[in-house]
Specification:
By secondary structure, this protein is an alpha+beta fold. It is 44% helix and 23% strand. The chain is built from 21 helices and 18 strands. It has a 9-stranded mixed β-sheet with strand order 7-6-5-8-9-15-12-11-10, sandwiched between helices. Strands 4-16-17-18 form a 4-stranded antiparallel β-sheet. Helix 6 crosses helix 8, helix 6 packs across helix 19 and helix 8 packs across helix 19. The chain starts with a strand and ends with a strand. About 1% of the residues have low confidence.
């Protein structure tokens, strides 16, 4: 039924009458029946009878009655909890098969709490409110997540210890499940490492001081290596003591890929910090499973690259607006020199600005002030009693403008080699998410096993984030991650009581929340849900 506005012309002019009409189907045709005429619209509105009628009818609708009670009587909500992130990431968590997988791994262990829910809560905290486990156990009280209501701090600690014990088995099962469930391919593997410091001064078997990318050499750290495939999907991770060099980490991860996943032949793509003769030997000369590789070279530190490769004349071939390539062979080794004309122009301008400033300072302040400046020192030639600009050093530096050099053993064309390496941004983006939007830190755990479990929970959170981002990209939804998380957080569950009955209200969805729900395949909850009588 519905209310129809019927226009009628009489002696006094044109009037509008409100009618209650019922639609029904008869013989395949839709017909309408007038149930009654309420009267002239202007008179009903002026007298207030229309408002009284609507309020009277609202008494017979539970949802409208709750809304009206909130509006007029100032009904106070009992609780308000964040709901959006748990709904969206909960669906992705289920789709990745994590509930069944975690319950299977914990089958032989006796936990008096729901370990799967605790693992989800840990991952959700990394996405929404990074902090210590203590802070997480308090934050969870502000979240509407089924099955997480009774979780407390000790459950978080026990879950991180459990995740540390099963991390290798968990990774293997996820890898094979992803291949089948998401049709993931493994023809190209991108590898990169990062360091994660923890707020403990004491070094342990795993927590070691080493090269810190976060500029915190005063704190012990872990080294984390993550492998992603060509689509940016995380396929493997490995954790090392904090003093592990990048090359050693790469060697161990490659062995992990061979042994744990039975990988036959893929192309490993890694940044210039990982290249060494031992690395290339491992990738190419292993008896069982040689790997193809595309590796970045250190242009200044590798003598063969600086002296032979970059000095070799040759014509560049344009493969994109900002990318030119040429091939150089030194013996049996194949190199690809890549040049970005735009970057080359910028590098030249920056160097000329440095040289101009250097000339001014040499004339005014003398040589002593210049030698200690690293930015200037590489262009200086120091003699016994004088310092001058080194023309050869300037020439060598100009040779590097806008360039990067790759070495490879593949049969890919030079253009394919360059574009494959440029795709390394996928794993670099993974680390930006791992250390910024995802916020793996802070690490406050005293024990190594709980620290490792914390990192495993962070990796599970990373899978959820990448999953949602890829779904948004497929739908061509352009929204920044901070905006998305902010809008999701505004979708809240509000519990109210009215006439001895409990109701759950959903706040309005704003901004990117609609896109996140649609991408994850989640139907937004009803604005009002009747939960039953107050117990």
């Amino acid at each position: 039924m519905f209310v129809r506005n019927k226009r009628s012309v009489g002696r006094g002019g044109e009037y509008e009458y409100l009618q209650i009409v019922r639609s029904y189907r008869e013989g395949g045709k839709v017909r309408q029946q007038i149930i009654g005429t309420l009267g002239r619209r202007d008179q009903l509105v002026a007298s207030g009878e229309l408002d009284g009628l609507l309020k009277s009818l609202a008494k017979f609708s539970e949802k409208l009655r709750v809304v009206e009670a909130v509006r007029e009587s100032g009904l106070v909500a009992r609780t308000a909890r964040q709901w959006g992130p748990a709904l969206v990431f909960g669906r992705l968590w289920e789709r990745q098969g994590l509930p069944d997988l975690l319950r299977s791994l914990a089958r032989d262990r006796k936990f008096e709490f729901d370990l799967e829910r605790a693992a989800f809560a840990l991952a959700l905290q990394r996405l929404c409110a990074p902090g210590s486990d203590l802070a997480g156990s308090q934050w969870l009280k502000t979240v509407e997540a089924p099955g997480c209501e009774d979780l407390v701090l000790q459950h978080f600690y026990r879950t991180t210890a459990f995740l540390a014990r099963v991390r290798q088995d968990l990774e293997s099962r996820l890898f094979h499940r992803d291949l089948n469930l998401f049709n993931q391919t493994l023809e190209v593997v991108f590898l990169d490492t990062t360091s994660l410091y923890c707020y403990r001064d004491t070094e342990t078997e795993w927590r070691k001081r080493g090269y810190s990318r976060d500029h915190r050499p005063d704190l012990p750290q872990f080294v984390l290596c993550v492998a992603v495939n060509a689509t940016g999907w995380p396929i493997a991770w490995e954790i090392f003591p904090g003093n592990t060099a990048d090359q050693k980490a790469l060697v161990q991860v490659v062995e992990l890929l061979r042994q744990r996943f039975r990988i036959r032949r893929v192309t490993v793509v890694a940044d210039r910090g990982m290249i060494s003769r031992d690395t290339i030997t491992l990738l190419t000369e292993h008896e069982q499973a040689p790997f193809d590789y595309v590796l970045g070279c250190r242009m200044r530190r590798q003598k063969e690259v600086s002296a032979a490769v970059l000095a070799r004349a040759g014509r560049y071939h344009q493969v994109a607006d900002n990318l030119e390539v040429k091939e150089v062979r030194v013996g049996e080794r194949r190199y690809v020199v890549c040049r970005n004309p735009q970057e080359a122009a910028r590098d030249a301008a920056v160097r000329e600005a440095i040289l101009e400033k250097l000339r001014e300072k040499l004339a005014k302040q003398g040589a002593k002030a210049m030698v200690g400046n690293k930015g200037f020192a590489r262009f200086l030639k120091v003699a016994k009693h004088s310092v001058s600009i080194d023309a050869e050093a300037v020439k060598r530096d100009a040779r590097l403008d806008g360039k990067f050099v790759l070495t490879t053993n593949t049969e890919l064309s030079t253009a394919e080699v360059a574009q494959t390496y440029k795709s390394l941004w996928r794993v670099e983006r993974t680390f930006r998410e791992q250390k910024s939007t995802l916020e793996v830190r802070p690490l406050y755990h005293h024990r190594d096993d709980t620290c490792l479990g914390h990192l495993v929970a962070s990796f599970l959170a990373l899978r959820l984030e990448v999953d949602l981002q890829q779904r948004l990209e497929e739908r061509e939804s352009k929204v920044s991650w901070p905006d998305l998380m902010r809008d999701l957080g505004q979708v809240q569950s509000v519990l109210v009581e009215l006439d001895g009955q409990r109701y759950q209200l959903r706040t309005d969805m704003v901004g990117a929340a609609y896109q996140a729900f649609a991408a994850a395949g989640v139907r937004p909850p009803s604005p009002v849900t009747h939960l039953g009588p107050v117990s």
